[in-house]
Design a protein that fits this description.
mainly alpha
Amino acid sequence: MEITEADLTHVRALAAGINVTALRGSIEELEQACLRKIDAQVTFNNAVQVAALTCGILPGVLSQYIVARVGDTVKKKAQSAAQLQLLFEELG
């Protein structure tokens, strides 16, 4: 019996703790989940653009604000914004 390059790759993956067989069974589902994520990002970006234009705010600022609210990082983001404002005030 001849050992193929594919066999060696599989053995190396197993030695690294990677179950390639299980991974192969998940690839299609992961690809579909990735496509849904991309579609959701496009939808979010479009909604932010519309709201930003309507409200007169920069889209990037609105996006960061919404992401901070949803990700429960408002306090950290507010501290970063305050420090950035201070730098602009002090250093220009």
